[in-house]
Design brief:
The chain has helices at residues 16-29, 46-52, 79-84, 95-100, 105-117, 130-134, 138-147, 179-196, 199-204, 215-222, 239-248; strands spanning 5-9, 36-40, 58-60, 89-92, 121-126, 161-165, 207-210, 229-232. By secondary structure, it is α/β, with parallel strands linked by helices. It has one domain (5-248): TIM Barrel (Alpha-Beta Barrel). The chain is globular, with a radius of gyration of 17 Å. The protein binds 1,3-dihydroxyacetonephosphate (13P). 1,3-dihydroxyacetonephosphate binds next to strand 8.
């Protein structure tokens, strides 16, 4: 059985006080949960977030990681640094990293390989742009993104990967993919995994949907067969909205 997951990507939001407040609010709402709950605060607050969530059902993950083990990479953060404070999962490949920091498939594969080597779990993000969808190239684009990255990993490392399909046109726009569009793409992604690896791996990998998931639309998206949960941006910054989204997947 695949695990259901709801993950909140806080992006570059929340200072120290806001981070503490939001975590405490979440902890008081989430007293018991059958699904996996994840939050990704900013780097400076990961340690305090790990400490605050120690006795809760919430896992703290990072939004990014560098593609090198250590060394002269000013301003960057390594896997071993994250692991040393109890962060064992990271996002890789978010569309904002791809668009604003020019992270391409080659770099993302390097990050993936390093994460796999160091037993860091990865939530790997990908998805097409609006122009790709309009020109009906979305399946090709997504297949290519996968082919150049996770489909190059070896079979044994895939169990430490979660996939997050986030169509760029739905991120922060309020325009969600319909539940049919999400299901259609998730099924396609699972087929790609099955063809490249095998059916068992495809059936076991969690595929999250991200892009304007809100309390009002979460249940409809999560009830689709190949949607195992969500990667939530804006709505994850509000404790009761995030909690309602978690409830919608429980
Ligand atoms: P929104 O939920 O704000 O659209 O963001 C989605 C996202 O990018 C999560 O990583």
């Amino acid at each position: 059985m695949r695990k259901k997951i709801v993950a909140g990507n806080w992006k570059m939001n929340n200072d120290l006080d806001q981070t503490i407040k939001l975590i405490n609010e979440l902890k008081s709402l989430i007293t018991d949960s059958k699904i996996e709950i994840i939050i990704a605060p900013s780097f400076p607050f990961l340690k305090i977030a790990v400490d605050l969530t120690k006795d809760s059902n919430i896992e703290v993950v990072s939004q990014n990681v560098n593609d090198n083990s250590n060394g002269a990479f000013t301003g960057e953060v390594s896997i071993s640094m994250l692991k040393s404070i109890g962060v064992n999962t990271t996002l890789i490949g978010h569309s904002e990293r791809r668009a604003y920091y020019h992270e391409n498939d080659e770099l993302l594969l390097k990050k993936l390989n390093l994460a796999v080597e160091n037993k860091m779990r990865v939530i790997f993000c990908f998805g097409e742009e609006l122009s790709d969808r309009k020109s009906e190239m979305h399946f090709d684009v997504v297949k290519n993104q996968l082919k150049n990255t996770i489909l190059k990993l070896d079979e044994s490392s895939i169990n430490n990967i979660v996939l997050a399909y986030e169509p760029v046109w739905a991120i922060g726009t309020g325009e969600t993919a319909t539940s049919e569009q999400a299901q259609e793409m998730h099924q396609f992604i699972r087929n790609c995994i099955s063809e490249n690896f095998n059916e068992e791996i495809a059936n076991n990998i969690a595929i999250l949907y991200g892009g304007s998931v809100k309390p009002a639309n979460a249940a409809e998206i999560f009830e689709k067969k190949d949607v195992d949960g969500g990667l939530i941006g804006g709505a994850a910054l509000n404790a009761s909205d995030f909690f309602n989204i978690i409830q919608a997947n429980s």
